[in-house]
Amino acid sequence: MSIRGKAYIVGAFEHPKRKLPDISVAQLHGEVALGAIQDAGLSLSDVDGLFTGRDAPGVGGLSVADYLGLRLTYMDSTECGGASPLYHVGHAAAAIAMGKCNVALITLAGKARGGGGGGVAPPEDPFETIFGARPPLASYALAATRHMYEYGTTSAQLAEVKVAASLHAQHNPNAYLQKPMTVDDVLNSPMVADPLHRGDCCVVTDGGGAIVVVSPEIARDLPRWSVKVLGHGEAPKTSDGGKVDVTFTGAAYAAPPAFAEAGVTPADINYASIYDSFTIAVIEQLEGLGFCERGQGGRFVENGGLVAPFGALPFNTDGGGLCNNHPSNRGGITKIIEAVRQLRGEAAPAVQVRDCELALVSGIGGDLAARMRSAVLVLGQEDA
Amino acid sequence: MSESAAAPTGPRADVIDEPGMPTPVPEVAPELAEFWAATSQGRLLLRRCTACGEAIWYPRPICPFCHSTATVWEQASGSGHIYTFSVVRRGIGAYADAPYVLAYVQLAEGPRVMTNIVDCDLDSVRIGQEVELVFHRASESTALPRFRPVTRSGA
Q: What is the interface pTM, i.e. ipTM, of the complex?
């Protein structure tokens, strides 16, 4: 298999100006994007893949996607200095060859004459961050308030997520918090951003993790049980030009292609690693992933719904970010690692899901109240 | 933004010079100079797409809905209601002296804008509450759009 002949460059545009004091870097990315897409005879509405380097404002391509109102199925922010766009063409061709996207937009733009270099602040900062939207818990709290208002979700239901994680963490000798908690423990912890209590938040830890992915030929010859990658979906969720809806996550967009590629449904999943920076994030992802109807996440987690090994959907059996580990304030790697343990049958015995054949991993990066990147993996046992 | 020559002028909201809460100075993107100049005068501008008719927030020249560049300024009425909020009790940076109310206000024109609710009892803020625009001066030439509960006589 190769990319040979699987992808074509159909649009190219170089901004005509060499001095641009009158527009921002975000707008400059927008203008070159429009130029190239018009050269191709396409519309930005056709773009489903975005490739940017560090010259894009903000972190990764999210702010550019938000600025332009893009609906993406694939995003790549590989940063390789001035060579980044060449990497991006190669990566875009591979993504197109595999059906991950059909129209890939690659932008590079910046204002070197203004000095600077380094990161460029995202265009949304003067309209969001400036009001105290950091720390992250503030924006997750905005989501929780609205979710409660629309669906009757309660603080006790949010607490159930923490309780489940803590019940798992007691079996993990490396977990940051190892003591089982009750709903009352969470509700009696200090309010940090109404309606979120301290107990609704993840731990802050040093640490890290890593993953190795190989071809089937190499996997076959290795002695350890391997885990098969069955499906992947991803999508940014933007602030939608002011029509922002804080009651759902990008998992609602990322999950369907992941399930379709894997050829399975939510009912087939035996174990789920779900990004748990805050309890409300789990509730909203459960809905978006299709494990319950929208608005029913709070009810889903009641009565031990997430507790291994016998709950409706055992989740985060390492204790998750809520109790075990959230290294570098990023929960993605530990989510994948625990799914691998479950599929290898190597989770802590008390929380190992019996006959765990299929696992799902859901990750969000960003915040619940404005914009995020979301990705979903479906993983299976070696012979899945 | 080339279509901005005939920027609207209308009623002005209060601009409070010493707001008594953190009011960081915004970084003014060149194409949004007019927006920020208007804040200093107590006026909140929206970007409106003349191709698809949508109001755009945060403001930008390219419509994120239909990708037209035919967008113009219009003045927002300054009224709206609370879409969601949080009383943040653990602030960081400029907001380390919490608590404060972070909120999305849905403007009468439609867009949901992130902001703070001010001049209010922290325990009385509610989703759906009617609010009105007030500006807090951040610098000589900029002010931040915030909102306060609409008080009715006798309330």
A: 0.93
